[in-house]
Model the fold of this input.
Amino acid sequence: MGLEFKTENERNAIQGPNGPTLPKVNCEEELALMTQFLEDNGYIMLYDHYKVMLAEKAKTEELYKNNDGFEEVN
Done:
């Protein structure tokens, strides 16, 4: 009866993901797939609200930048 000495890689083998590999697609196909995912799962409305929030944030930041950090009140 003898001891079997293994290297670190043999004891703790590093394994990659065993799942399927993703197909290669171009940007337009990826965008269409992402949009379809958002629509199918009901997240497209949240995404639209997010875009509006980002636009309003950029507008407010531009307003503050142009007025030295102060907002004009009418």
